[in-house]
Specification:
The chain has one helix and three strands, in the order αβββ.
């Protein structure tokens, strides 16, 4: 179980330092905002959807490593 916890922690830290899919998505077809008042995380999520398929996803905002 310690190995799984270490892997999880390593992945969270890596994504916090090197976020994937971060940035604005011009021409998105769907968007939503989220805010967690308990920790201050703020997120703007943008999706491009074609039929039933998400073809692109991006986010912008700020928060802790877990939310990133």
């Amino acid at each position: 179980m310690d190995e799984l916890r270490d892997l999880y922690q390593e992945m969270i830290l890596d994504h916090g330092k090197n976020p994937r899919n971060q940035g604005r998505l011009d021409g998105s077809t769907h968007a939503a905002d989220g805010h967690n008042p308990l920790c201050g995380d703020m997120l703007h999520l943008m999706l491009t959807v074609d039929g039933d398929t998400v073809t692109d996803a991006r986010f912008d905002g700020q928060g802790c490593a877990i939310s990133t």
